[in-house]
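Structure first, sequence second, as always.
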């Protein structure tokens, strides 16, 4: 819903799913005008309806997949390579854009992306942070 590739680049920040699960797009008043506009209303409403449908089914049955729904099946996570790792909730301006991701986030993949996509001094800061997260208390 953000211009260009910004939605993919920024991802969803903590709590952004709340208004979609609640069917209420006035939760983040400060960000409302930036994220929720007339231009993306159709896609936003379709995304919210899908998220509420999954949540309601899970609350009723313990299974997020509503019977008879046309939504993609939300499979349990598996460690088997090539299997579903995440259901990606997204929308364009006018329509729902759910997809299944088989991408697995690994240490090697994060390091490769940091080395390829980032420039100094950001690259160094990220790599130092990641190294610290492996051993947050400095124990050897």
């Amino acid at each position: 819903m953000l211009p260009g590739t910004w939605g993919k680049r920024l991802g969803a920040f903590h709590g952004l799913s709340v208004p979609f699960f609640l069917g209420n797009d006035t939760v983040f008043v400060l960000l409302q005008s930036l994220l929720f506009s007339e231009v993306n209303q159709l896609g936003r409403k379709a995304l919210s309806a899908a998220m509420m449908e999954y949540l309601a089914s899970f609350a009723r049955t313990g299974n997020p997949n509503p019977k008879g729904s046309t939504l993609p099946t939300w499979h349990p996570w598996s460690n088997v390579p090539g299997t579903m790792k995440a259901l990606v909730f997204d929308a364009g301006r006018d329509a729902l854009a759910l997809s299944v991701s088989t991408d697995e986030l690994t240490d090697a993949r994060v390091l490769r992306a940091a080395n390829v996509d980032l420039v100094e001094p950001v690259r160094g800061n990220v790599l130092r942070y990641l190294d610290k997260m492996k051993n947050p208390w400095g124990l050897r």
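Margin note: The two ends are 45 Å apart (CA to CA).
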